[in-house]
Amino acid sequence: MKNINKKIAVLIIVINCIWSCSDDYLDVVPDNVAVIEHAFRSRNEAEKFLFTCYSYRPEIGAVDRDPAMASDETFKRYETNGGGFTWDNTQIALGFQSVTDPILNAWDGQRNSESAWKGIRDCNIFLENIELVQDMGDTEMKRWIAEVKFLKAYYHYYLFKCYGPIPIIDENLPTSAEEEEMWVYREPVDDAVNYITTLMLESVTDLPNAAEVVEGTEAGRIDKLIAYAIRAEVLVYAASPLFNGNTDYGFMVDNRGEKLFPQSYDENKWVLAAEACKAAIDICHTQGKSLYDIVDPLVLNANPIFQLQTTYREAICARWNKELIWGNTRYDSRFLSSRAQARLVRLDAGTLNQAAEEYSPTINMVEKYYSSNGVPINEDLDWLTNNWYGDRFKIRDESANGDEKYYVEEGKYTVNLHFNREPRFYASVGFDKGVYFGNGYYEFDTNRNVKYADFLKGQVSGYQGGSGYSITGYTAKKMHSFKNAQTNTAVSAEFFPFPIMRLADLYLLYAESLNEVNGPTAEVFTYIDLIRNRAGLDGVQESWNNHSSNPNKPNSKTGLRDIIHQERGIELAFEGKRFWDIRRWKKITDMNNQPKGWNVQGSIKEDFYKVRLLPKIPISFSTKDYFWPIKESNLSTNANLIQNYGW
User: Fold this and answer.
1) C-alpha neighbours within 13 Å on the C-beta side of residue 142
2) Which residue, among 570, 509, 58, has the nearest Cα to 240 in the 3D structure?
3) Residue 390 to residues 132, 358, 380, 610: CA-CA distances in angstroms?
């Protein structure tokens, strides 16, 4: 590793940070107490410091504060209604990131974000002092050290995703250090990746197996599976176009003459990524992880259509299930749940419950889901022959009938776009006249019937004046449990740990890496098809051969790459993955596509079903938006830092 200063902690970029931590952890070093040994005088005190090291975790899944929850998959009404608050991640999605006051500033710890550098500093303090503790066993001490090593690597990784090349802060400087010693350099991409992945791998030896983490008191703490899986993800990022031979950033050279981005494409990075993914998958399998396929007891007597949909949703919403590798316990997912579900009941007098509907999928996202034949709707032979694709926004002449009642309210009318779609669409998206199975109602065609969404203006799920409503006419059904229940005035929401990593994600990362190395192979199809089969679809080759206007698409690396990208977009929709994927793939200009929704001011179907271009600030995403700016005041105090392109 070249020229890495391993003696930095009291960074200029965090010099004004004070000792503090988030509300759910105790402060461990009181203000003005200089003797750090006080924090390590006993096991109990050291455990508080351990939890403080955990407290800097990004709020992955926070619908209002996780930047990745505001990609082009969804649109929020707070962007356009002229009142109320505007979520910070929405501001980034609209192009309002700022060099003077960066939004969700993970570098400095401002604008509703913790400083990851401060977290790294506390991890270093922990690692330098934990051996002072006398009243704890060697095995437990080694475990804690391994956890903190991983956290230290993970905080570097999160900064790497946000800012690109970053300083490497491996040890702490004494407070007597000269100012020039604190002038950090941003290290080249390959050095940063090597540091992060090496430290993660180093942590594995003393981390517990997944089954050894006590769910009631330790859920969410780092285990071997997490370390292997996140390390694999880091290597996939490093192999992706944003970091692998990205000539758009070739000019980023610091005052040492160090080029921060490698300028030559290196296929071996994909080889390393594939090997890491396979190692992670193998240990996950060894420790009992598999794709979630359990039919919940509540739906054992339900139609298989509903069993399939609820099982898919429970892969996200069932707590600590067998597919989940790492779940975020720092964020209360019930806030997301209440903003992702349609209102299904209300009092006739107009009293409304708390189903707020802000997290609203766009028509653009709805179009990405496959047909019922498991291929894109714009190349499905049935859709093309019957002109369903050309007329996808047209209200179908026939009302829902026969088995369609399991998807659309029987006898009601909706657009062609909502018929003949894959099971994940019906499990993931709430749409006008769509069936909502669950939500306190588990029987069909009885007095306790399922509920139906009605997004027309004035109807139960639709625009209600100043109340909560979906600005697109859709809701993200996937992001709340089917067990959530609604009354006229209240919504009960099931808590679930938001998935930072689940096995389906890891399978797709592996398939992507293998395809980039060898193109289409049997193993690539095996891992994609495991996910498709769980979703009720045939495999890629069978689906494209029988139903696509482009049957040879899976037979080339380029064609299969497109399929894998779309498969990730569907399988991981609304989970905060696309935000980072379109960056590492260098596809951020996709964010410039005008988002679309229905005319939610329409009170009859002929008015509602008019495609509406949603308001968009006239800012185009470009090369500069792959990374966020370093706050300009940091550059004035550190002559060795250079700014990201375009800022």
Assistant:
1) 9
2) 509
3) 70, 29, 12, 15
Per-residue confidence (pLDDT) for residue 500, from 0 to 100: 98
Residues 6+ apart with CB under 8 A from 157: 196, 230, 234
The whole-angstrom separation of Cα 107 and Cα 409 is 49
Q: Does residue 363 contact residue 597 with C-beta atoms inside 8 Å?
A: yes
CB 342 within 8 A of CB 453: yes
Q: What pLDDT shows up at residue 29?
A: 39
Best CA proximity match to 105, nearest among 86, 85, 124, 88: 88
The 8-class DSSP code of residue 612 comes to E
Show the CA angle centred on residue 340, arms to residues 326 and 483, nearest 5°: 75
pLDDT, residue 638, reads 92
Angle at CA 269, nearest 5°, toward 268 and 271? 60
CB 228 within 8 A of CB 204: yes
Residue that has been written with the tokens 């193998």 in this structure: 282
Name the token pair of 272: 């390393």
d(CA 376, CA 221): 39
Contact assessment for residue 270 and residue 319, using Cβ atoms and an 8 Å cutoff: no
Q: Distance (Å, rounded) from C-alpha 73 to C-alpha 339?
A: 15
Could you tell me the pTM of the whole model? Answer: 0.93
Question: In the numeric block, which tokens belong to residue 222?
Answer: 């780092």
To the nearest 10°, report the CA torsion of 224, 226, 228, 234. -150
Using 70 as the pLDDT threshold, list the residues of the chain that sit under it: 1-35, 78-85, 174-179, 181, 349, 440-449, 466-467, 616-619
Supply the pLDDT for residue 22: 32
CA separation for the pair 514, 281 (Å, rounded): 14
Residue 136 burial by Cβ neighbours in a 10 Å radius (0-12, 13-18, 19+):
middle
CA dihedral (350, 353, 356, 362) positive or negative: negative
CA dist 359 and 477 (Å) reads 10
> Which pair of tokens denotes residue 497?
């740990």
Q: Are 93 and 616 in contact (CB under 8 A)?
A: no
- Predicted confidence at residue 96, as pLDDT, reads 86
Q: Running DSSP on this structure, what letter comes out for residue 380?
A: B
State the pLDDT at residue 617. Answer: 60
Contact 361, 418 (CB under 8 A): no
Which residue's structure tokens are 């045939």? 538
**Tokens 């090349």 label which residue?**
165
Residues in CB range of 146: below 8 A, 6 or more apart: 203, 204, 205, 206, 207, 222
